[in-house]
Design goal:
The protein is α/β, with parallel strands linked by helices. It has two domains: 3-137, no CATH class; 145-461, Rossmann fold (3-Layer(aba) Sandwich), CATH 3.40.50. The protein has 16 helices and nine strands. It has a nine-stranded mixed beta sheet with strand order 1-2-3-5-4-6-7-8-9, sandwiched between helices. Helix 11 links the parallel strand 6 and strand 7. It is globular, with a radius of gyration of 23 Å. It starts with 11 loop residues before the first helix and ends with a helix. The relative contact order is 0.10.
Length: 464
């Protein structure tokens, strides 16, 4: 890790210590407020200098974000000077975390070089803050659970190899029965008149595939959901697939700018809910079951997502659809890319900030301690990647015409390594791609990706 060569690696530790000293001088109440952000900045700064890994900038980013939030109460508790000093120190640490991550990004031909500006550093640090909180809220894996996951991966690999799916991943995806009579009910969200569509998924993993009973035990997940926005005339349809942790109507409508695509672009929309998300999630676990400790959980989740999407699209084709396209964000982009290799006759596939290798993604986000535990338990990344190959968008060619393939990504993405986006772009024979300068969380908030999606929609559905 080359962060130590950059001066910003030395900023978080003294910033955190300085905040502690200033707060202590102001009294016990001020120290109590400043303690958590300051300690996080100190811990992250020390880790940067002594044992640098991905978690170190995340600790600094969380400390900096909390410190900026604490600036106002500290100014009220003590004086304006302490509030301003707190904000300045915390902002410096927050930006340092972002800049350090920017310097970790590999140089890839065709990908714009990062710009270490204040705004860019803040957008990257925002990713680190969210990742840090997610890591903190994830319970640690026990050695016994890891060993059980390793055994399940081995059994899944043997099954897939025995059935010939590793050699021909397309055969793993069975043709689902058509969807003929889904349940439809009126739904008004954010001023839009739509319909809630529900149907029994009917997806059941093979009886020999490990984890089948666990997956079928998620009762809520057996019902598929989608939000439908349609005109009373024949029109093109765009199926939208959300990212991890989403799946709630108001959230998804905003993420996809559904009002704009529906009203201004004249599209019918189907906002699909991924398995174990939103109303399909087991109580208290919105999306978490998609990525279980066992790699087999992702296999079940993706295969069911493709099954349900194909049934939904079969129904859409009976609704005076002039064309059908797919648009996914993050995890939804992975699913959309995979669907484009399985479902024929899609007019376009738009993949936003798409991951393409969940095993490499898991390794990328793991701390040093987590990697050591995985090694001790016997985790085999090559075997795990082979298990995931039957649901990998990189193992099968897309069926969408080259002119209908679109990707957008962020140069400072901390959730999805940019080499994974580049891999999909290469696999798709280098279609049109747009790179914005920022992070994963901010990609859909920036103008450039929004304009890019509008241009893609216009080119596919409304050609001049």
């Amino acid at each position: 890790m080359q962060n130590l060569k950059h001066a910003s690696a030395w900023l978080p530790l003294p910033a955190g210590l300085g905040l502690l000293l200033l707060a202590a001088h102001a009294g016990y109440a001020a120290l109590a407020v400043a303690a958590i952000p300051a300690v996080l900045m100190v811990a992250g700064g020390a880790r940067l200098l002594l044992f640098p890994d991905l978690r170190a900038p995340q600790l600094v980013a969380i400390g900096g974000a909390l410190g900026m939030l604490c600036a106002l109460p500290l100014g009220l508790l003590a004086d304006r000077g302490l509030g301003l000093a707190t904000f300045a120190l915390a902002l410096g640490a927050f930006l340092a975390a972002g800049w350090l991550q920017v310097r970790r990004q590999p140089a890839i031909q065709g990908v714009p070089a990062p710009a270490p500006t204040v705004g860019y550093g803040a957008l990257v640090a925002l990713d680190d803050t969210v990742l840090g909180f997610m890591a903190a809220l994830t319970p640690p894996s026990t050695p016994a659970a890891l060993r059980a996951a390793v055994e399940e991966s081995g059994a899944a690999h043997a099954f897939l190899q025995r059935r010939g799916f590793l050699d021909d991943p397309l055969r793993f995806h069975r043709q689902p029965p058509p969807l003929t009579s889904p349940a439809l009910s009126p739904l008004r969200v954010r001023g839009l008149e739509g319909e809630r569509l529900c149907f029994e998924s009917g997806h059941e993993p093979d009886a020999e595939l490990p984890g089948r009973d666990r997956w079928l035990g998620y009762a809520e997940n057996r019902t598929a959901h989608a939000l439908i926005l349609r005109h009373s005339r024949a029109a093109p349809w765009l199926v939208c697939v959300h990212g991890f942790g989403m799946g709630k109507p108001a959230q998804d409508l905003q993420a996809f700018r559904a009002a704009h695509l529906h009203r201004d672009a004249g599209l019918n929309l189907a906002l699909f809910t991924l398995p174990v998300h939103g109303p399909r999630a087991p109580a208290g676990f919105n999306g978490e079951k998609f990525f279980g400790l066992s790699v087999v959980d992702f296999l079940h989740a993706e295969s069911q997502a493709i099954w349900d999407l194909r049934r939904l699209i079969a129904w859409i084709r009976t609704q005076d659809a002039t064309q059908v396209g797919i648009f996914g964000i993050s995890l939804g982009a992975y699913t959309s890319a995979l669907l484009s290799a399985v479902e024929p006759d899609l007019s376009c596939v738009i993949a936003g900030v798409p991951p393409t290798d969940m095993i490499a993604h898991r390794e990328y986000l793991a701390s040093s301690a987590e990697r050591r535990l995985a090694s001790i338990a016997g985790v085999d990344a090559l075997r795990d990647r082979a298990v995931h190959s039957v649901v990998s968008p990189l193992r099968m060619p897309t069926l969408v015409p080259h002119t209908g393939r679109y990707l957008f990504a962020a140069t400072g993405d901390q959730f999805v390594p940019i080499e994974q986006v580049h891999a999909l772009w290469s696999h798709w024979q280098q279609p049109r791609i747009s790179w914005c300068r920022g992070g994963h969380q901010s990609a859909l908030l920036q103008r450039q990706p929004r304009v890019f999606v509008d241009e893609a929609v216009a080119a596919v559905f409304h050609p001049a």
